[in-house]
Amino acid sequence: MTTSIEAPPDPSLPAAPSGVARDGQGSDFARLSRRISEAGLLRRRPGYYTLRFSLIGLAFVATWTAFFALGDSWWQLGVAVLLGLVFGQGALVAHDLAHRQVFSKRRPSEIGGMIVGNVGIGMSYGWWMNKHTRHHANPNHEELDPDVSPDILVWSQDQARASKGLPRFMGRHQAKLFFPLLTLEGFNLHISSVRALRAPHMKKRLLEGGLLLAHIAGYLTALFMVMPVGMAFAFLFLHQAVFGVYLGSIFAPNHKGMPMLKGNARPDFLRKQVLTSRNVRGGWFVDNAMGGLNYQIEHHLFPNMPSPHLGQAQVIVRDYCAEIDVPYHETGLIESWREALRHLDEVGAPIREGDSEPDRVAA
Questions:
Q1: What are the residues facing 279 on neighbouring strands?
Q2: Distance of CA 326 to the CA centre of its chain
Q3: Omega before residue 358 within 30° of 0, cis
Q4: Count of structural domains within the chain
Q5: Where is the Fatty acid desaturase domain positioned along the sequence (predicted)?
């Protein structure tokens, strides 16, 4: 069962020390950071990102060209699947831009993020940036990480016990419902982006709102201008379903089922990031399909590291974690999904047990 780290920390996990390195050369993370920097893994990769942006841009243009060329044809459902994958790759590029992996300065990163995010795929750059920054600061912390806040699903047994309404209803069988629910995640990203325009943290709400409106208007106009209403709706739902499942399949393995933090638990930076993250093996295909996020441990330790360097960094980080006795978890893609689903099933146990309590009393 997934461990929850409270204050004091769970004794089944390594203690959360001050992080002072054993050789007296500063914190454990500072020593690791020096090794990474000396290996040149924080330098920018303009050539790589130029090629990656070009390929995704060409895929985007080619898919929409095929869409307009096919017109009123049920072959459009194949285009919808392809476009869902292209949107997913676009989201991964927006992620790298937000972390300043592509440009070192804020302004070009923000401009690129809005072009790819708001205009290209209909996801607010400012909303996602705020949410993702809070996640990186406190991954898997029940009170501080927005990615594990109880919404439709619950992520810990304490959340399950306190759940009411829809989360309680869904939590009974959330492991079985997880992938079906991901078919709605694409819609959720668009709706959350629009709703966030009223949030105080949105500094450029008029600009972002205008760009989102341009995306939505252009997207819906294209669908209903080219295809009959029924086919347009079929395209819409299939496209967004593929987009949602693709993104969910990338992000769910990263932290779900790893130790949870709560209360005043404050491991040092290195342990907080390593203990709550999971790496996914798989070679060239997984590296590209997941945009480098399969190296989640390295990404959380060095979020502005260009994604093509993460694989090289893994060797250094994994060896260093062994050196300082910090558990380092990695597994295959399918097993990562199993671990995440197993966690969701265990989390829902208190709800199922509560539902069966009257039967046991009656017996």
A1: 330
A2: 24
A3: no
A4: 1
A5: 73-331
Asked if residue 15 has pLDDT above 60, the reply is: no
Q: Mean pLDDT in the chain?
A: 90
Tens of pLDDT, residue by residue over 214-267, are 999 999 999 999 999 999 999 999 999 999 999 999 998 899 999 999 888 778
**Looking at residue 96, what DSSP letter applies?**
H
How distant is the alpha carbon of residue 294 from its chain centre?
Answer: 11
Q: Which residues of 245-266 are buried (b: 16+ CB within 10 A; e: fewer)?
A: bbbbbbbbbbbbbbbbbbeebe
Range of weakest confidence among 18-27, 82-91, 260-269, 284-293: 18-27
Residue recorded with tokens 């831009």: 97
- If DSSP codes are grouped into helix, strand and coil, which group holds residue 151? coil
Residue 241 lies in a domain: yes
Contact predicate 116/90, CB 8 Å? yes
Q: Using CA atoms, how far apart are residues 255 and 336, in angstroms rounded to an integer?
A: 10
Dihedral sign (CA 305, 310, 313, 319): positive
Region of 177 on the Ramachandran plot (φ > 0 left; ψ -120 to 50 alpha; else beta): alpha
Q: In sequence order, what are the residues at sequence separation of 6 or more whose Cβ sits closer than 8 angstroms to the Cβ of residue 310?
A: 292, 295, 298, 299
Q: Is 39 in a helix, a strand, or coil? A: coil
> What is the rounded distance in angstroms from the CA atom of residue 315 to the CA atom of residue 179?
32
Report how far residue 76's alpha carbon sits from residue 231's, in angstroms, rounded to the nearest whole number.
8
Give the alpha-carbon dihedral of 85, 91, 95, 100, to 10 degrees. 100
Q: Is residue 361 one of the residues assigned to a domain?
A: no
Q: Using CA atoms, how far apart are residues 144 and 55, in angstroms rounded to an integer?
A: 37
Please check whether residue 310 lies inside any domain of the structure: yes
> Which residues is 280 bridged to in the sheet?
331
Does residue 320 or residue 152 have the better pLDDT? 320
**Domain of 250, in residue numbers:** 4-354
Torsions phi, psi for 350 (to 5 deg): -60, -35
Residue 190's contacts (CB-CB under 8 Å, 6 or more residues apart) are 122, 123, 216, 240
Q: Is residue 362 a part of any domain in this protein?
A: no
Q: For the chain, what is the radius of gyration of the CA atoms?
A: 22
